[in-house]
Amino acid sequence: MSEDRRRVLHPPVPGFAHAGELQRRPRVAVVGGGIAGLTAATGLAERGVEVDLYERESYLGGRAGGWDTALGDGTPVTMSRGFHAFFRQYYNLRALLRRTDPGLRRLKPVADYPLLDAEGRIDTFRGLPSTPPWNALVFALRSPTFRLRDLVRVDPVRALSLATVSVPETYHQLDDLDAATFLDQLNFPASARHLAFEVFSRSFFASPAELSAAELVTMFHMYFLGSSEGLIFDVPEDTYPASLWNPLAEHLEGLGVRIHLGTPVDAVHPEVRGGFRVGDSLVDGVVLALDVTGLREVVGASPDLGTPAWRERVDGLRTAPAFYVRRLWLDRPLRTDRPSFLGTGSLPPLDNISVLDRFEAQAAGWARDTGGSVVELHAYAVHERTDDLPPRLLARLHEIYPETRDARIVGELEQWRQDCPLFGLGDFARRPTVETPVPGLVLAGDGIRVDLPVALMERAATTGWQAANRLLAGWGLRGEPIWSVPNQGRLGLLRAVAARRATPARR
Description:
The chain is α+β, with helices and mostly antiparallel strands. Helix content is 33%, strand content 20%.
């Protein structure tokens, strides 16, 4: 499967290939076993660095992890926080997964991800041209919610920002503006906003009124205009542990990594003579690859760590509103023409319906054995946890897929979570970066600032490689190459026009 030839290589600093060439092998504590921590641990261990990986949960993968549990009747199942789309331009995440699956055969393609609006109209990604900007243009013009007259009404000057993305410049220009206001200024038709914008906003568990316009524009670049792979994604063929993290754990342990599950790290203490104390261990470097709350707590409990200004940045990180996942094991199948995923953001409180037995081996086995189905309902940006949310989601399922009305719920599990970063107004400039003012201490995670067009799981993986590279460079060791979609919009002529329009005329 070919990758976009316009993808950009960000080469690492040259150095030794293995820590065995040094006088002493460094030792690093990686705190957090999500995607960012696993990536950092991989980058370090493959260069011969001794690594201890600490994870407070009993499983790896963080927000893309899964754990063993059981239904009410005792049936063993694996639960997670919901499906994740592994887009083809997630180059750095896919580089991590290739460590144990070189051909990415444990990922399977998804043919389509239709979007349903409140009027029953459906937008589809199937059959789009792969080359930007034609993919976005065809997507819009064939949509039943978008007409040629709508395209004419769009403000061309404002629209230039969608085609002339540059990171971090786009954040300097638009981060203080919310996404909803930006779309108003763009004159983008309200009936069509869900098809290209609101689905991105709510993927960050925030409504457009809470999300930075810069983040929205950068996402539009990453998924539409920045890459010919941006609208195609895969999903694991089985549960997250079976497909992804158990094989990676075996790979890391084969490299000598010591994985400590169920072992939270409360604080990091810098030593007077250099290095750090993490628990009972002395280490040369630390990677804090934690969610927003975890990072704030560890830094808050480590009073000698960093400068006041840096600690203030960490403390200023915010979490997005909560999200809710309800997974149902039903006693009958859904119609065979139902898609694996359906976006329903225009039908609150439901944002997504996932039919797990269409792609996940464990769910498919249960459905085959029982004649039933496994369906997952998502609600994003939930500001208040109320008792009526689960039945409202179920009512929406019955409305959209009427064959479920008479289905008996054989088993159900739910997840309420509020631990995703908020990309709010003005947050970009205040967000801490991978590098810190403390030599030997680096940060990683999807809430950490990185000046590349990356998002979600890919941002976590990118910062994980960057964190490892920063430590490796300090010891004279070679790091891992990092890739991204182009860091600038494809329409260079429009960029020049935008620059001229933004420059005051001389008198």
